[in-house]
Amino acid sequence: MKSNETLNLIEEITRNDGSKYYEISNIPQNGRAELAAVRGFIKEVRILQLNIPRSSNLIKYEKYINENFVMPAEDFDHFEEWVKPPEIQTIVDAILRENHIA
């Protein structure tokens, strides 16, 4: 089943090993990440920017996420990091630059 998420924020996720990465997300997904931190699946998540502009890059990334991932139920037992092929990571990097994050 595919998702129909509207992505509108940038968050920084800290893995349990201390490494960090940025994700383009939304409030429900951020809530799942917060729950993952409480459950010890990740170390921390924090929102860096809310209400990011709906650029063409954001729309492309949103389409990729909605076609490849689904929102986890509240009873999830692990944190799924959205794996991005190089061409999608390039789009994410562009979104981060557009929003002065990277």
Topology, pairings included?
Layout (H helix, E strand, L loop, with lengths): L8 E6 L5 E6 L1 H12 L5 E7 L5 H13 L17 H13 L4
Antiparallel strand pairs: 1-2, 1-3
Helix pairs in contact: 2-3
Structural commentary:
The protein is built from three helices and three strands, in the order E-E-H-E-H-H. It is α+β, with helices and mostly antiparallel strands. It has a three-stranded antiparallel β-sheet with strand order 2-1-3, sandwiched between helices. A hairpin with a 5-residue loop joins strand 1 and strand 2. The termini are far apart. The model has no long low-confidence stretch (mean pLDDT 94).
The end-to-end distance, rounded to whole angstroms, is 32 Å
Q: Which whole number gives the mean pLDDT?
A: 94
Give me the side-by-side strand order of the main sheet: 2-1-3
Structural class: alpha+beta
Secondary structure tally: strands? 3
List the total number of helices: 3
Q: Which descriptor suits the 3D outline?
A: globular
User: Regions with pLDDT < 50 over 5+ consecutive residues?
Assistant: none
Listing every helix as H and every strand as E from the N terminus to the C terminus, the arrangement reads EEHEHH
Report the sheet-strand fraction: 15-25%
Give the % helix. Answer: 25-40%
Main pleated sheet: 3 strands, antiparallel
Q: Rounded to an integer, what's the Rg over CA atoms?
A: 13 Å
